[in-house]
Design brief:
CATH architecture: 2-Layer Sandwich
Oligomer: single chain
CATH class: Alpha Beta
Structural class: alpha+beta
Shape: globular
CATH superfamily: Lrp/AsnC effector binding domain/regulation of amino acid metabolism (RAM) domain
């Protein structure tokens, strides 16, 4: 099962809006608000790599108030 971690920066004051949008996506398994270089770390799991890419490109990258996003695709566990 393909997995990825997303490192997200968010426009200040918009964290709750972004969190609400992420929680509505079935492939989002965990969301952690963090301090440091990034504002959130998101764990995604999908049935296929194609579905993982689709969720990232068509759902998550279109969420408003995300200012940057770094994707880390898991290659082995």
């Amino acid at each position: 099962m393909p997995k990825a971690f997303l490192l997200i920066n968010i426009r200040p004051g918009s964290e709750d809006d972004v969190l609400g949008n992420l929680e509505g996506i079935g492939e989002v398994k965990e969301v952690k608000r963090v301090y440091g270089v990034y504002d959130m770390v998101v764990k995604l799991e999908a049935d296929s790599m194609e579905r993982l890419k689709e969720v990232m490109n068509r759902r998550i990258k279109r969420i408003g108030n995300i200012t940057s996003l770094t994707t880390l695709v898991v290659v082995s566990e």
